[in-house]
Design a protein that fits this description.
The protein is α/β, with parallel strands linked by helices and 237 residues long. It folds into 2 domains: 6-130, Rossmann fold, CATH 3.40.50; 136-235, Winged helix-like DNA-binding domain superfamily/Winged helix DNA-binding domain (Arc Repressor Mutant, subunit A), CATH 1.10.10. 40% of the residues lie in helices and 21% in strands. The radius of gyration is 18 Å and the shape is globular. The protein starts with 5 loop residues before the first strand and ends with a strand.
Amino acid sequence: MPAHQRVLVVDDDDGVRTSVTWALEAEGFAVDAVNNGLAAMESINANPPALVVLDLSLPGLGGLDILRRLQTMEPCPGSRPIPVIVLSGRDSETDRIIGLDLGADDYLVKPFSTGELAARARSVLRRSGFDTAAGRQFSPQGHGVETDRASRQVWVDGQPIEVAAKAFDLLAYFVDHPKRVCTRHELLSAVWSSHDGWQSEATVTEHVYRLRLKIEIDSQRPERLRTVRNVGYRWDG
């Protein structure tokens, strides 16, 4: 594993922080660990990591506040926002949606296995550009949606738009599979490297809803990203 794949672990629980650090180091990651939000932001600003593993329930500056700050940070040219795996003791759908909507790339509920965390870390890093093809790719039908894989930028009808990290991954998958129905199960596997035993298919539904707000003229009557009832979605670009 490349040495630059440095992970910042942010958790105020000494036991969790130590076990996560050991598990990630055993997988070859370089790990820094802090126990509060202010220390996390200081570390991120001084030396941005490849990935942040973030507990939501932090003293002082909370996990959701950190997520908001990470999404507003100006990335280096040609890069994307720092990916984040959220750790939380809260298993409500609302909490998951809030975390994902604020830019988290994945969400794990405590208690979790360190092996699963390591697998998800590898998956998130792969999706973050360590093995993605560079270059701008137009929507195959030329109906106005354009993506640039290197800079992870999106244009709609010639205008640049901001999309969350996971929304870009989802859009890129649809663009790569035009005119074909993609099931929610398939999207969980391909975009999240997950399955419905780990994550609810409602995660896909929520991200599709958010993506349509960005790319459709009327998100209630989508023409680019269509729903195929009881099956999934089809990209008509």
